[in-house]
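Practice problem: predict the structure.
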Amino acid sequence: MSYPPKYHQDNDINHMIEVIKTYPLATLISVKNNEPLITHLPLIYNEAGNLIGHIDIYNPQAELLKDDNDITIIFSGPQCYISPSIYATKQLPTWNYIKVHLKGKVKVIESKEALKQSLITMTEFLEDPDHNYVLEPDNRSMNGYLDYIKMFEISIDSWEGKFKLSQDKKPQDIENARAELVRANQANVKAFLNKVFSSN
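Answer:
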C-alpha cells in the first residue's frame, strides 16, 4: 500500500524540480551510529541534474558528507491548515502541503576554484531576478572563508513528491483550497513575524 494515496503523490520530475528551485532551503539528513544529524541549508539544482551545496567544516554533519555516503534531503513548499469553512461542500479539517523527499549519494568537491565559482553561481541564482547584489571573484570576505567551507555534490537516486492539495475533492473545493494556501501563507508569515519580533 502506497502512502500518501496516489492522488497526493506527484511523480512529475519537473514539478519536483520547480519546488527545489523555488524553495531551495533543504533539510539534509545523515545517520551516524543510528542517530540522525540534520542541517538546513540551500541546495542548487544544476544542469547535470545534481544538487550542489556548501557546509561549514565545523558543522558535525560535515564529516558525514563523504564520497558515496548516503543522504536524505527534504524540500518544503507552502503548507497550511484547511478549514472546512472554505469548501463549497461538507468536509472535515485537513492540512495541505508540498514536500519533496530525495535520496542520493554525496561527492566531495575539493577544488577551491570550483568552490569559489559555486558560491558566486549560487548567489547569482538566489539574487534572481533583480540581482541587486553581485558576489565578485575578488571579494575578500569570501576568499577568507574558503578554507572553512566544504563543497559537495549530491547525485539523486530516488524522487518522491508529496503534493497534498485537496486533489480528492470536487473542482470548486480544490480551487478554494489552492486560494487558501496562498492566502494563509502570506497572512501567517506576517502574523508570525509580528509576534516573534514584536518590539513590546
